[in-house]
Automatic annotation (TrEMBL):
Primary location: secreted
Coiled coil region boundaries: none
Family, as annotated: Belongs to the nematode transthyretin-like family.
Species this protein is from: Dracunculus medinensis (Guinea worm)
InterPro entries in the cross-refs: Transthyretin-like, Transthyretin-like_sf
Swiss-Prot/TrEMBL keywords: Secreted, Signal
Protein name stated in the entry: ML domain-containing protein
GO cellular component: cell surface; extracellular region
Domain of life of the source: Eukaryota
Length: 233
């Protein structure tokens, strides 16, 4: 007959309440021995209907477990219960102590939110373009643009940038501000590059990279503009 142990995970949900994706991991012991036959479930209280299972797993042979779930309702995070179905032959008092210790061994980790990654090398003729400013931006339904992040090319002309992004972003752009073939300060030539939404890396996915490879910024692309803001230096 399996016993059910229920833990209210209030100890860690406070630090994860801003995330819609949450994971729990830990190690279960039965006395001094590794316990490896437990079923682990994450559930939440659903009104008068009782508990509903969000996700479930079983331990690995070394006694560890790792379980994740995604919730669109952040309020549900405050009512999560970890259920451990096990048959460890422990006394009730020992079992209570064991569960209290286990709750401190559990680590909460947030799954990485959707992100956008870009990299490449900028040249000005045959010379690396150092100090060019690269921005990632996106537009929403209202047409407003928001900056996701920025970086600068280094001495060898390379750059790499990573930023979190709303997966519902309608338009994604990369802007490159530079002075190749133009030394007017603080004005900078500005190249605009549209990035397909297919380069958005979803939560938990292997990172995708939008790679511009080697670009010669002597090129004057269609739509290039001159921007003269003092903060572009």
């Amino acid at each position: 007959m399996y016993k059910i142990a229920c833990l209210f995970l209030l100890i860690f949900t406070a630090s994860c309440s801003a995330q819609t994706s949450v994971g729990v991991k830990g190690t279960l012991m039965c006395g001094k021995q590794i316990y490896n036959n437990a079923a682990v479930k994450l559930s939440y209280k659903h009104g008068t209907e009782g508990f509903k299972t969000l996700s479930e797993t079983r331990q690995s042979p070394n006694g560890t477990f790792s379980i994740t779930f995604e919730s669109k309702d952040s309020k549900a995070l405050k009512e999560i219960v970890l259920k451990i179905h096990h048959s460890c032959a422990a006394t009730p008092m020992y079992k209570i102590v064991y569960l209290l210790i286990t709750i401190f061994l559990i680590n909460c980790f947030a799954i990485e939110p959707p992100s956008l990654n870009a990299q490449g090398t900028l040249m000005c003729g045959e010379k690396p373009l150092n100090g060019a400013k690269i921005q990632l931006l996106f537009s929403n339904k209202t047409g407003n643009s928001y900056e996701l992040g920025e970086t600068k090319s280094i001495q060898n002309g390379t750059y790499a940038i990573t930023a979190s992004i709303d997966p519902k972003a309608l338009k994604i752009q990369m802007k490159i501000f530079h002075n190749c073939l133009d030394k007017l300060m603080p004005c900078k030539r500005t190249a605009n590059i549209n990035i397909p939404r297919t380069f958005i890396t979803g939560a938990g996915e292997k990172p995708k990279w939008f790679n511009t490879y080697t670009m010669n910024m002597e090129l004057i692309p269609s739509g290039e503009v001159m921007v003269c803001y003092s903060d572009l230096a």
